[in-house]
Amino acid sequence: MNFRSDNESGAHPTIIQAVARAFTSGPAHAYGADEWTHRVERRLRELFDKPDLVAFPVITGTAANSLGLACCTPPWGAVFCHPSAHIAAEETGAPEFFTAGARLFRVDGAGGKMDVKMLAGALAQPVYGVVHFPQPAAVSVTQATESGTVYSPDEIASIATATQRHGLKLHMDGARFANALSFVGCSPAELSWKAGVDVLSLGATKNGALSAEAVVFFDPALARDFPFRRKRGGHLLSKQRLVSAQLDAYLADGLWLDNARHANAMARRLVAGLTPLKGTQLLYPVEANEIFVVLPARMHDALQEAGAQYHPWPSDRPGERAFRLVTAFDTPQADIDRFLSIAKAASPS
Fold it and tell me: Which residues does residue 309 pair with via DSSP β-bridges, in sequence order?
């Protein structure tokens, strides 16, 4: 019963088989000049209905975010994001490093989402052209958010409107983009470039890949320097096909969405069984595959004794014990049902 993170899940057999075929298919052009890398870009153009889209595979989400943002801001720029955003809270200064000095500015909001009015206020500050201040350059949103909530296309469009009003670029950290897309039920284009996103860090590692992400530029002009930034940053792989083969299989035949649907469905099943139990309370709506919930002490202790694994999480209310549970593409339904059986048996009467 491992609900610690979708980072701890394995890889989908189809993706493993695709990498094995890439390994054993004989020599191939290096540094991304191979057929797998070219095919991934073609697939992304079709999926996102964007014939001029440009995409680059990398191996980590941190690289995707940091290198993508580096194409959106000068070293003296300012990037606006939610305080809980991965780029702000969990990337050890990588965005600042890869942008050669751009600063991150936090714009708060409920449920992990930036408040549009607060963002508009932050972007309206009289700093443009003033040499004493970092120059606003980009806004970054996380989809799904670090609170497990999902931006709708209209919410993204509202942020994009505020962003574009000042000539800034909109970046999306899509580490769980497939989970968000599965929840919203629209097209990939409607949840990205049609809503105003310029650059997407498209995640696959949390959703069944071994280690593969893609930096997707909906504005090709922004990608001009990316190959050099990727090489300089140590993320151009000689055997790029082994990463691209993962993305190729991930995007083929709807596997990426099938995986996300399963993860989301397991989260809904877990929530449906937990929330009726006395003493439990959700911190945020569950819209993807992350659950933030208050558990009574007796229930938590019983689950721990049975071997269930999940992370403690801060709660705003004193005395509460909150936790994060994450489901994945390979979470067995039997684990969900066993977890709920233990929780129900230990629920306060």
Answer: 2
Q: For residues 16 and 55, give the distance between their C-alpha atoms in angstroms, rounded to a whole number.
A: 22
Q: How do strand 290-294 and strand 281-282 relate by DSSP bridges? A: antiparallel
Q: How confident is the model at residue 61 (pLDDT cuts 50, 70, 90)?
A: very high
- For 284, the domain range is 258-345
Reported as half-sphere exposure (CB side, CA atoms, 13 A), residue 297 has a value of 2
Question: What is the count of structural domains for the chain?
Answer: 2
d(Cα 260, Cα 303) in Å, to the nearest integer? 26
Query: Kind of pairing, strands 77-81 and 135-142?
Result: parallel
The verdict on 239 and 123 lying in the same domain is: yes
Question: pLDDT for 241-270, tens place per residue?
Answer: 999 999 999 999 999 999 999 999 999 999
One domain for residues 61 and 192 = yes
pLDDT digits (tens, 9 = 90+) for 71-107: 999 999 999 999 999 999 999 999 999 999 999 999 9
Residue 210 CB partners (closer than 8 Å, separation 6+)? 11, 15, 16, 19, 246
Averaged pLDDT for residues 270-293: 96
Q: What is the mean pLDDT of the chain?
A: 96
